[in-house]
Amino acid sequence: MLSLRLYMLQRITALLMAPLVLGHLATMIYAIQGGLSAAEILGRTQGSMAWFLFYGLFVVAVSIHGAIGLRTVAHEWGGLKGAALEAFMWVVGVGLFALGARAVWAVTFA
Q1: What is the DSSP-derived secondary structure letter of residue 29?
Q2: Which of 27, 109, 2, 103 is nearest to 62 (CA)?
Q3: What's the whole-number mean pLDDT along residues 45-72?
Q4: Which listed residue, of 3, 21, 47, 95, carries a Cα 20 to 30 Å from 57's Cα?
C-alpha cells in the first residue's frame, strides 16, 4: 500500500512541476532576452508574494518528487531496505526542501 501511495504522490508532484518548469523557463528566457542583470531580477522578485508562492510550491513538489525517485534508485541499485530506505528518503527530501527553501527566501524576502 505504501508503494502505491508513493507512486501516486510522485505522479501528482510531476503534474504540479510540469507547468512550474514551463513558467520558470519562460521567465528565464524573458530575463535573458531582456538583458536583465541579476540586480534587476532581484529588484523584481524581492518582496513578491507571488514569486514566493510560485517557487515555494516548486520547491515542495521537487523535494517530494526527488526524494521518492531517489528512494526507488536506492532500493533497486543500492539494495537499501526497511528503515534505512525510509530514512534515506526523508533525509533527501528534507535536505532538498531546506536548500530550495533557503534559495526561495533569498530571492524573494532576504
Answers
A1: H
A2: 103
A3: 97
A4: 3
For residue 59, the tally of other CB atoms under 10 A from its CB is 20
Confidence bin at 61 (pLDDT 50/70/90): very high
Q: Report how far apart the first and last C-alpha atoms of the chain are (Å, whole number).
A: 42
Looking at beta carbons, which pairs linking 9-16 to residues 24 or more positions away fall under 8 Å?
A: 9/64, 9/68, 10/64, 10/65, 10/68, 10/69, 13/61, 13/62, 13/64, 13/65, 13/68, 14/65, 16/57, 16/61
C-alpha cell at 39: 540586480
Predicted TM-score (pTM) of this structure: 0.91
**Angle of helix 49-76 versus helix 2-33 axis, rounded to 10:** 130
The model's pLDDT over 8-35, given as tens digits with 9 standing for 90+, comes to 999 999 999 999 999 999 999 999 998 9
